[in-house]
Amino acid sequence: MYQTIILGSILLVSFYILKRFRKPKLNMPPLVRYKIPIIGHTYSYMFNSEEFIKQCKNEYGEIFSIYIWGEVRTIVGKEYSQEVLTRDDAFSFGKAFVETIPLDLLLKHAGVTNVPKLLKDYIFCKLNFYSERMQKCLHSAIQKYINTNVNDGPKVFNNMYLLMTKIISTPVSNIFIGEVRFISDLLTLQKIPPLLNFYYPGYLNRILVSSGLYNPAIKHRNILIKYIKNQVCNRLQGKAKYGDSWKRPDDLLQDIIEQENIDLNNVNYSSLADKIFAFLFASIHTTSTGCANALMDLASRPQYMQELYEEQLEVHKEADENGVLPFEALDNMKKLDSFIRETLRLTGHILALDHSVLKDYTFSNGLQLPKNHTVKIYVDDIYQDESLQGPNPKSFEPFRHIDKNAPASKISKNFVLFGAGKHACPGRYFAISEIKFFMHNIILKYNIRTESGKIEGRKLYGPTAYPSPSGIIIEKRKAK
Ligand code: HEM
Q1: Residue 110 falls within a domain, yes or no?
Q2: Ligand 1, pocket-test mutation among 418, 423, 434, most atoms within 8 A of CB
Q3: Residue nearest to atom 36 of ligand 1 (CA)
Q4: Could you identify the atom of ligand 1 that is nearest to the CA of residue 347?
Q5: 286 lines ligand 1 (CB under 6 A)
Q6: Structurally, how many domains does the chain consist of?
Q7: Which long-range contacts (CB under 8 A, 24 or more apart) does 18-22 make?
Q8: Which range marks the domain in which residue 304 is found?
Q9: pLDDT: is 158 or 281 the higher one?
Q10: pLDDT for the residue numbered 239
Q11: How many angstroms separate the CA atoms of 318 and 126, rounded?
Q12: Does residue 138 fall inside a structural domain?
């Protein structure tokens, strides 16, 4: 036993040393000085990232490298961030993402489905069509998770993010609400330090998942498979009963079944479940984070409530007798849209949008990176820059985007939350519609404020921001 451990350790250390000395002769970005081997900058990166990265940039310039978790990572400031985001021949977001959350192992039955294409072809082009369902689902989820609790008076809600995953997953999945835990379970992998990355990118997480020590997909897959089996059975019965007059269900499940010519009498359920998970994963965490942050930003600044309320009252005049708005009504929520863009702009990450280098790359300033290296975008540098954001870039000014031709879904050099270029998030219109319909509902029905009575900022874990778990008091508006 001991011999194996010692041998294993020697092998790992030798591999590590070999890797460090096998450096390619490239004009690499400057490496920030550090004192303690192996630890390098990990401590400052985890516990003081905002100041640490700012100082590094001041001293080393737009592109520099730091040594964290036993690996060299390159940080790219605002001047060169577009090069990383738009050169998809040289940089990949997806590859870097899989190094943190090994989706290829977690959803190994999904096969070769092109998720972006599937979503573009079947969901995003029909946003107008899905709008009524989205609103009805949001409405019932808000009733279920918020309203029942506040009927008796003001109520404190802690950890809005978790509540939001439940609310947001209702329209997103429209059906399998029980699956939301999967998303937060998966994100646990994001918080595991990448300790063995020097050996192989994402190695520790891959071991945890493939050994079964931590594989959140397994238990959730079984629940989802049970649900899908039920659906397939209903659809088979419906087809048999009604023949050509059978009304096909309008959902992603049916789209996948038809697009991939799946024989309903011979379904590979694991594969179908994994494909649906990929869709849920892309949409629920991101949109829930946006909603939780928007809610906290409004609760932190109740002085903007009245103005937003008046706008939503006006917009609501367009609703039908069931309270459903036409899709076009979203365009008239100008103040709310600007508020949401401001929330998203100030999401709070210091570094984000990790990309893997696909081939040796030379930046326009001559600095070079080798294939398989990982870069992080210094997004705080973009969002705190006056020339890009306008005056007082650090302060939350909810109406700063009005009349600037900058709706919340619009990507630009000064707004990279959804990425940029060819691979910019195709789900952003879907997400923004959902956040707007959600906030419309909340603003019309409730008054909100923070439990502390103060502005609650985001929670930083290293350079990554998460919604504040602090309490929000939600109180039903008095009927006039
Ligand atoms: C506030 C919500 C959201 C945020 C902040 C967000 C953010 C992102 C980012 C940063 C990327 C990578 C872009 C790049 O490579 O440059 C991305 C890609 C993607 N997102 Fe989103 N997203 C959100 C909502 C959604 C939703 C609701 C869906 C699906 C319904 C979705 C589906 C996708 C897909 C399929 C890709 C891959 C695109 C490709 O590789 O071509 N996202 N998203």
Answers
A1: yes
A2: 418
A3: 425
A4: 5
A5: yes
A6: 1
A7: 19/198
A8: 25-476
A9: 158
A10: 84
A11: 21
A12: yes
Q: Identify the CATH number of the domain in which residue 166 sits.
A: 1.10.630.10
Q: Alpha-carbon torsion 184, 185, 190, 193, what sign?
A: positive
* Ligand 1 atom nearest to 430, measured from its CA: 27
Q: Cα(282) to centroid of ligand 1, in Å?
A: 6
Question: Which residue out of 120, 283, 286 has the highest number of ligand 1 atoms within 8 Å of its CB and is therefore the one to mutate?
Answer: 286
Q: What is the pTM of this model?
A: 0.86
Count helices and strands (H / E) in the chain.
Answer: 20, 12
Average pLDDT in the chain? 85
The answer, yes or no, to whether residue 274 has pLDDT greater than 60, is yes
Query: Is 425 within any annotated ligand binding site?
Result: yes
Residue 131: which pLDDT band, with cuts at 50, 70 and 90?
Answer: confident
Cα of 122 from ligand 1 centre, angstroms: 16
Is 220 a residue whose pLDDT tops 80? no
Whether 427 lines ligand 1, by a CB cut-off of 6 Å, is yes
Residue 430 Cα to ligand 1 midpoint, Å, equals: 10
Q: What are the tokens at 339? A: 């508020």
pLDDT band at 205 (very low <50, low <70, confident <90, very high): low
- Residue 273 domain-assigned? yes
289 in a structural domain: yes
Which ligand 1 atom sits nearest the alpha carbon of residue 431? Answer: 27
**Is-contact 451 160, C-beta < 8 A?**
no
Residue nearest to atom 16 of ligand 1 (CA): 419
Once rounded to an integer, what is the mean pLDDT over residues 378-395?
Answer: 96
Nearest CA to ligand 1 atom 22: 425
| Alpha carbon of 5 to ligand 1 centroid (Å) | 42
**Where is pLDDT greater, at 165 or 31?**
31
pLDDT digit string, tens, across residues 223-233: 778 778 888 88
* Between 419 and 285, the higher pLDDT residue: 419
**Plot region of 366 (φ>0 → left; ψ -120 to 50 → alpha; else → beta):** left
For residue 319, which of 423, 444, 447 has the smallest C-alpha distance?
444
3-state helix, strand, coil in the chain (%, to 5): 55, 10, 35
Average pLDDT over residues 279-303: 92
21-30, 181-190, 279-288, 323-332: lowest mean pLDDT where? 181-190
pLDDT at 99: 82
